């Protein structure tokens, strides 16, 4: 291998190590939500990623007895606590969010800023032809929280996204859609 190719490989390796090192969240608690529409079920998938500097605060909220172990009961309680900070309505009617799935990473991953808490909430619906307005609000988890929210492209060809509106911080989201 020529000296030029070796140099190029060294630069690529160095750039790769920088990009992976900078991928860790630092001082924010990212709460990213995707919304998946279907006529009989609306799914909200939250991916919660505490940064290195806020991980201890988040862990204290989850690990209620402070023993350094996140039990299934503590994980479930935290998921329900997150749900209390969410509001969801369809055409002005508030609908309950039901916890369907929750997965928690290892504590070491959370402390490193790479661990993602995954929560899936379902809303049972029986949507018919017509126009719909969905409103979603995430009250978050404190001043270090940042939000992202987006709707996935529907699998059902009769569902049509008409428009999405977000607040500047994306804690508030509105979606207009149509079923034909």
UniProtKB/TrEMBL annotation:
<keyword id="KW-0732">Signal</keyword>
<protein>
    <recommendedName>
        <fullName>EF-hand domain-containing protein</fullName>
    </recommendedName>
</protein>
<feature type="signal peptide">
    <location>
        <begin position="1"/>
        <end position="23"/>
    </location>
</feature>
